[in-house]
Amino acid sequence: MERGIIFDLDGTLVDSLPGIAEGVNRALDALGKPRRTQEEVRGMIGRGARNLCAQAIGYADADEAPANELEPMHEAFRLSYSSCWRGNYTLPYPGIPEMLSVLAGQGEKLAVLSNKPHHVTEPMVRELFPDIPFNPIMGFTGDFPRKPAPDALLHIAKLWKLSPQQIILVGDSIYDANTAINAACRFVAVGWGYARQDELRTASPLPPAQKAEQLLSLLLPDN
């Protein structure tokens, strides 16, 4: 059966926590606000930059944060992170480039769907995985709501002329799991990302993959 595989980015393909934490702290420094530890930032990842920024300044989410506090933080983070994600601040997880090469070599349709802003998502994927034919690469632009809304995933399925049942979504978070539920597609979890393991075990029909080789075995056509 023809199919396509859509990957989350942060915590799934790449360890971006050091760069995100650095971007958050540069923004907090610029605004004279206290810094956050990497572990604090880890728990803020997954719902997009605005929610990340709201949590960094002490609010539960972007809806709760006053605009006069959130907007300066969001803009400061946008500027800082655009320049500080490169280098050792963001690296593919071990074995991921090789796994993707195997899938690409088998002619699989591959895409990236992230809640990270698109102006960072696309250059990051192109730079870190230059030989992998991801098509499309989608970060958040406002054209579609963020995951766990299924709209962007369903858009990719339409581009590929596939049904949701022919799609596999690979991710590290409850937001990815709920996206798959909302889109009625298959979900495969990875256990090396930023979500709590108990959340993933509850949301995923299979135990999360713990290594890239295990993930590849779960994604091969016979599985």
Please give a structural write-up.
- With about 220 residues, this protein is of the alpha/beta class.
- It has 10 helices and 7 strands.
- The longest helix is centred in the middle third of the chain and has 18 residues, at about 65-85.
- The chain has 2 domains: about 5-15 and about 90-220, HAD superfamily/HAD-like (Rossmann fold); about 15-90, Orthogonal Bundle (DNA polymerase, domain 1), CATH 1.10.150.
- The chain is globular, with a radius of gyration of 17 Å.
Task: List its traits.
223 residues; alpha/beta; Rossmann fold; DNA polymerase, domain 1; 2 domains; 7 strands
Brief summary:
By secondary structure, this protein is of the alpha/beta class.
Fold topology:
Blueprint: E1 4-7, E2 14-15, H1 17-30, H2 38-42, H3 49-56, H4 67-84, E3 91-92, H5 96-105, E4 109-117, H6 118-128, E5 137-140, H7 151-160, E6 167-171, H8 174-183, E7 186-189, H9 197-203, H10 212-219
Helix pairs in contact: 1-4, 3-4, 5-10
Could you tell me the radius of gyration in angstroms? Answer: 17 Å
Strand order, main sheet: write it out: 5-4-1-6-7
Low-confidence stretches: none
How many beta-strand segments? 7
Instruction: Identify the overall geometry.
Output: globular
The count of domains is: 2
Beta fraction: 5-15%
Q: Roughly what is the average pLDDT, rounded to an integer? A: 94
Largest sheet: 5 strands, parallel
Please identify the top-level CATH class of the largest domain.
Answer: Alpha Beta
Reading the helices and strands in chain order gives EEHHHHEHEHEHEHEHH
Assembly classification: single chain
Question: What name is given to the CATH topology of the largest domain?
Answer: Rossmann fold
- By CATH, the architecture of the largest domain is named 3-Layer(aba) Sandwich
Label the structural class: alpha/beta
User: How many helix segments?
Assistant: 10
Helix content: 40-55%
- Quote the distance from N terminus to C terminus: 12 Å
